[in-house]
């Protein structure tokens, strides 16, 4: 049996139904879908995502990323994305995993590993695709295989995860992942600004204040923020507002005007226009459509 087939069988074994599942291994989540899913708007936190079967389409701003079992996705900052499964069936379900990145473990590896192990190339985007090599795939399989022996997880999962992060740090993702752990890096500064915007997304965004918190000039901040996220700070804030409004309407049955006001919109008509532009339909029609769908079809 080849490794990718084993990985697919392990994910199938530990899901068994469609949806997104947490596991006994910290930060490891599994996903399964037997049909293509709806485009799902989420804020994707730093993670490594691996597909064992099927195919997925992810959009960051105007950029489109397609990935499958031949590639893996790395996200190094919180990014508003649109993701959906595009290849899945009853006979060959979509099967994938996501391992959330642990900055503390990354920092420890940076201190301990030889400096010549790391690439000096510094990336722009906070998200990228790379080929899935045999060593990394073997590492991922061994991590998921631990779900078969729960008694071993507490001892072996940290070691296996550490090895996996080391392979990422010494591979094509080296520059991107190093910046997560280095407080002086541009990506770390942008991530600090992202955190500030996320905590205060309902308020008027003052670029000068956010840039100052990130220890950058306004022009430098705008340039680096867009390089990492593919969108301006205002566009980023708008996506956060609209995603939260959609959640409020769907989960709390708020009307559009109330939800729009709750996330910082003073004009109901402006909120409806921007909502329709992002989600494809005005709030009432969009929410009615979502409520008619099984929950798993909404998983991005």
UniProtKB/TrEMBL annotation:
Gene3D superfamilies: Homeodomain-like
Pfam families listed in its UniProt record: AraC_N (PF06719), HTH_18 (PF12833)
Matches recorded under InterPro entries: Homeodomain-like_sf, HTH_AraC, Tscrpt_reg_HTH_AraC_N
GO molecular function: DNA-binding transcription factor activity; sequence-specific DNA binding
Keywords: Transcription, Transcription regulation
Domain of life per record: Bacteria
Chain ranges of the HTH araC/xylS-type domain: 191-289
Name of protein: AraC family transcriptional regulator CmrA
Origin species: Phyllobacterium myrsinacearum
High-level lineage: Bacteria, Pseudomonadati, Pseudomonadota, Alphaproteobacteria, Hyphomicrobiales
């Amino acid at each position: 049996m080849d490794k990718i087939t084993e990985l697919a069988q392990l994910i199938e074994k530990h899901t068994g139904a469609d949806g997104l599942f947490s596991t006994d291994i910290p930060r490891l989540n599994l996903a399964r879908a037997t049909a293509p899913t709806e485009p799902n708007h989420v804020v994707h936190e730093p993670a490594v995502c691996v597909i064992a079967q099927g195919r997925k389409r992810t959009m960051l701003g105007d950029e489109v990323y397609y990935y499958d079992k031949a590639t893996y996705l790395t996200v190094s900052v919180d990014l508003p994305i649109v993701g959906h499964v595009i290849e899945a069936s009853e006979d060959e379900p979509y099967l994938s995993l996501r391992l959330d990145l642990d900055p503390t473990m990354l920092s420890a590896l940076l201190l301990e590993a030889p400096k010549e192990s790391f690439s000096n190339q510094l990336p722009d985007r906070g998200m990228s695709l790379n080929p899935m090599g045999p060593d990394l795939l073997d590492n991922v399989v061994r991590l998921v295989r631990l779900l078969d022996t729960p008694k071993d997880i507490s001892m072996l999962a940290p070691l296996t995860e550490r090895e996996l992060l080391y392979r990422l740090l010494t591979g094509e993702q080296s520059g991107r992942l190093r910046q997560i752990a280095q407080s002086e890096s541009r990506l770390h500064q942008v991530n600090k600004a992202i955190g500030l915007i996320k905590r205060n997304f309902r308020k008027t965004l003052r670029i000068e204040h956010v840039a100052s918190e990130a220890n950058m000039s306004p022009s430098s901040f705008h340039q680096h923020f867009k390089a990492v996220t593919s969108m301006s700070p205002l566009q980023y804030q708008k996506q956060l507002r609209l995603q939260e409004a959609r959640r409020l309407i769907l989960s709390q049955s708020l009307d559009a005007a109330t939800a729009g006001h709750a996330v910082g919109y003073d004009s109901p008509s402006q909120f409806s226009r921007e909502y329709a532009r992002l989600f494809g339909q005005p709030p009432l029609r969009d929410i009615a459509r979502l409520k008619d769908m099984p929950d798993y079809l909404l998983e991005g």
